Amino acid sequence: MKYYEVTFRIEVQEQLQPQSQQLLQTAVDLTSALAGEAGFETFEETSDGGLTGYIQSSLFNRDLLDQLLTGFPLEGVSVSYTLQEAPDKDWNEEWEEAGFEPIIIGKKCVVHDGRHLGSCCLDDYEMQVQIEARQAFGTGNHETTRLMVEALLNRNLSGQRMLDCGTGTGILAIVALKQGARQAVGYDIDDWSVRNAIHNAKLNGVDDRMEVHLGDSSVLGETVTGPFDVVTANINRNILLADLPRFAACLAPDGLLLLSGFYESDIQKLTDEAVKWGLQLSGRTTECGWACLQLLKNEK
Hints:
The chain has eight helices and 14 strands. The protein has helices at 20-37, 62-69, 93-98, 143-153, 171-178, 191-203, 237-249, 267-276; strands at residues 3-12, 42-45, 51-56, 77-85, 103-105, 109-112, 127-130, 161-165, 183-188, 210-214, 228-234, 251-263, 279-287, 290-297. Helix 4 (143-153) packs parallel to helix 5 (171-178). It starts with a strand and ends with a strand.
C-alpha cells in the first residue's frame, strides 16, 4: 500500500515570537486535527517544531487539505506543506532496531518487545503482551492505544466475542483474548498490518482464537458476521463517523463499542452520531487531548 509523506511547516508572525513556543504546540495540535479530517492516519512531530503526516496516496485530496488549512484558526500562524511519496519500506524500521522500553498500562498490563526489558520483571504484571511492529503504524505506546487497552482491562470479557476494526498490530484483540474473550476477529485495510497482527497473535499464544481479514468495514456482514459483545475502533474521526452504522449493526444488544483515535473536541460530534444508531454514551477517558468513548447498544 502506497503512502504520501507530508511535511507541514508552521510559521509564527514575528510580533508573536515571545509566545512562539506555546503557539507552536497549539498549532501542531490543530494541524494534526485538521489533517486528520482529511484522512491522515498518523503523525510525527519534527525537531524544528513542525509536523510530518502520513496518508494513503489513494485517499489524498489536495483540495480538501488546502481548504482546511486556509484561514488557519490561530491568529498570526500560517501552515504550508510539501508532499512526497513515502518510501515503500518497513514503517517502523528504525523503531524495530531501537525497540522500546516496557509500557505499563493500568498497573496490570505490561507491553514489551521481548528484547528491551531492562529492570522490568514481567512476572510483576498480571498480563504480559509482546508486540513486534513489522510494517504497521501501531507500536502500542500512543495515548489512544493506552486508553483503549485500559478500557478493555476494566471490563470482564470472559466468554465474549470481540471485533477489532483497523487492528494494526493486533494489540487490542490480543489484550481482549488475554482478558478472557473467547474469540477476536480483526480487519485492516493494510496487508502489512494483517500479517503483523497474525504474527503478534502467535507470539502471544492466542492465534487459535484470533482471525484477521484484509479490507475495510465493508467486510462486516459479508466475510465477518456478528453479533459481537465488544467492538473496538481506534481510527481517525471521519472513518469512525462513516462506519458507525456498520459497527452498531454487528454489535450485540447491550454490547460495548470502544472508540478512539480522535481529540476531545470531537467527542460531541461522535456521540451525537452514535445516538442515531442506538448507541448511548456510558463513559469517556482522555489523555493529552486524545479521547476514548465507551458506548452501549440500547437493547430493543
